[in-house]
Write a structure and sequence with these properties.
Length: 545
């Protein structure tokens, strides 16, 4: 159904091609994954297939055929006729792809209004077809959902709406560009099963773009590994995991399955009160809606974080883990309960007392592209907390920035660059350096690795581990990625609907979960299809490598 041969794509001003003589094929009813880290060329290749390359890019050679039709020389007018009908695209982020001011029904039926497909439809017929599409992708109460707005649906439902829109005209090929990277593991599994079902029941070919080999293992029959614009290896996913021929593929698999032994971390004895960096007791947060309804986002949560350890909060979207972090940081007011930081009461502080807490408890946010001011240089960004807290003179601040760049593994030459000139991993290192600038004792990492590819994730995990040992830092780590939590944390607490359902040393909770919800989260972790009975995927991968 899709046949790419020797495709080369150049960006204006770049010496090396973004895609260099790449060849890919996908059969009807087959799911093929394109895997690689950021900058590997996988997204450029997928955009070339659907004719959405930016004006700065051009196809310098090769062939792209879908259902026998050559696509490389099409005009934009010809492309308009084929997008949606021949090729459908499922974009990465439903939060930016769906219009917040239009109902779901208006956005789904738009595809039929734009592509008449030979027969006129009245409003009732349009809504019936839209509801049937939503039902096809597994959305409950589809007729009711048509009248809702995107913000009224969960992240998983919004992503299914995008799948329904991409598949609405029954294209021969679906391109899924990182469609689950922002979703928690249980919702991710449910969304990816929609692609499995569509391929099996309708015969649509699926080109699945991802940075995570573990995700590809559960849903793709074959995978293509890209690096620096070139296909370095391809074949069945089992071969790429257990019998890779290229060192880069081995590194990618090791990063994806986090082969670091779990017993390298965790299992430390519980700390007594004198060594607790954070202590939360009976913490609750109630939000009031305009209609007079009250929603309890956090409900009686209690835990303690030993000094010098990494304590992870995990759970699905809406479980309350980020709200707990905001309450600890003083970015939201607790409705009940107490927060103690280094033995001092930090509940609902204000003014100078709250600023003193912020000096010792710093935050690293999820997406560095949003968290870093694009107008400032790296030096200005890292020095910002020093200015805010009145730490040091100009020369001392300059020296501190240089020290921090060394600590996070960045060359000092990046100090005068803007964030846009850095890779995603470099941007996150800048964010970490900024958090470390006032010499905090505690760092809160709120989904700080979820926007990064697995290779970059592994490097940042090593960096955080080293910094913790060198500086005796305490980490509160919020994440929905259980494999990252397994690699990084000593202790873990599992939240569900605002309540703590299980906690303890990471090794104990992950290997012997007591709660059914914890077991469901672990069962949804990517890489299950290749997991052997009684043996962990990480152990198998480690033996193979």
């Amino acid at each position: 159904m899709l046949k790419i041969e020797n495709l080369t794509v150049h960006y204006r001003g770049n010496e090396h091609p973004a895609v260099n003589h790449a060849s890919v094929s996908v059969a009807s009813g087959e799911i093929v994954a394109i895997i690689g880290e950021s900058g590997s060329g996988k997204s450029t290749l997928s955009k070339a297939v659907i004719g959405l390359l930016p004006k700065t890019a051009s196809i310098a050679g090769g062939s792209i055929r879908v259902d026998g039709q050559e696509l490389t020389a099409l005009s934009e007018r010809e492309w308009v006729k084929r997008r949606g009908r021949l090729i459908g695209l499922v974009p990465q982020d439903p939060a930016t792809s769906l219009n917040p001011v239009h109902t779901i029904g208006a956005q789904v039926t738009e595809i039929f209004r734009l592509h008449e497909a030979g027969r006129p439809r009245d409003r009732r017929q349009l809504r019936e077809e839209a509801a049937a599409l939503l039902e096809l992708v597994g959305i409950d109460h589809p007729a009711q959902r048509l009248s809702q707005y995107p913000h009224e649906l969960s992240g998983g439902m919004r992503q299914r709406v995008l799948i329904a829109m991409a598949f609405g005209l029954r294209p021969k090929l679906l391109i899924a560009d990182e469609p689950t990277s922002a979703l928690d593991v249980t919702v991710q599994k449910q969304v990816l099963e929609v692609f499995d079902r569509l391929a099996r029941q309708t015969g649509v070919a699926v080109l699945f773009v991802t940075h995570n080999l573990a995700v590809a293992c559960d849903h793709a029959q074959r995978a293509i590994v890209m690096r620096n614009g070139e296909v370095v290896e391809s074949g069945p996913v089992e071969d790429l995991v257990f019998r890779p021929t290229q060192p880069y593929t081995r590194d990618l698999a090791a990063s994806a399955f986090k082969v670091r032994a779990i017993n390298d971390r965790g299992g430390r004895p519980e700390a007594d009160a004198a060594t607790r960096a954070i202590e939360v007791a009976g913490l609750s947060k109630v939000f009031a809606h305009g209609s007079g309804q009250r929603f309890k986002a956090v409900d009686g949560v209690s835990f303690a974080v030993p000094t010098g350890s990494t304590f992870a909060l995990v759970g699905e979207s809406g479980s309350g883990k980020s709200t707990v972090a905001r309450l600890i940081l003083g970015l939201a007011q607790a409705s009940a309960g107490t927060v103690r930081v280094d033995g001092h009461d930090a509940t609902n502080l204000a003014g100078d007392a709250q600023r003193e807490v912020w000096r010792h408890v710093q935050l690293v946010q999820q997406n560095p592209q949003v968290a870093l001011d694009p107008r400032l240089s790296v030096e200005q960004i890292i020095a910002e907390p020093l200015h805010a807290f009145g730490i040091g003179e100009r020369a001392q601040r300059f020296q501190r920035v240089a020290e921090l760049l060394d600590q996070v593994g960045l060359p000092r030459s990046v100090a005068q660059r803007r964030p846009r000139a850095l890779s995603g991993g470099q941007q996150q290192r800048v964010a970490i350096a900024r958090a470390l600038a006032p010499r905090p004792r505690i760092v809160v990492l709120d989904e700080a690795l979820s926007a990064l590819d697995v290779v970059t994730q592994a490097r940042i995990i090593d960096l955080l581990d080293r910094l913790q040992r060198e500086l005796n830092l305490t980490y509160l780590f919020i994440s929905h990625d259980l494999e990252v939590v397994r690699s990084l944390s000593d202790f873990v607490a599992v939240l569900r609907q605002g309540r703590l359902v299980e906690s303890g040393p990471t090794a104990l909770v992950f290997e012997h979960p007591r709660n059914a919800y914890t077991r469901a989260l672990l069962d949804a972790t990517p890489g299950q299809r290749l997991r052997e009975p009684g043996r962990g995927m990480r152990a198998v991968a480690l033996e193979a490598h």
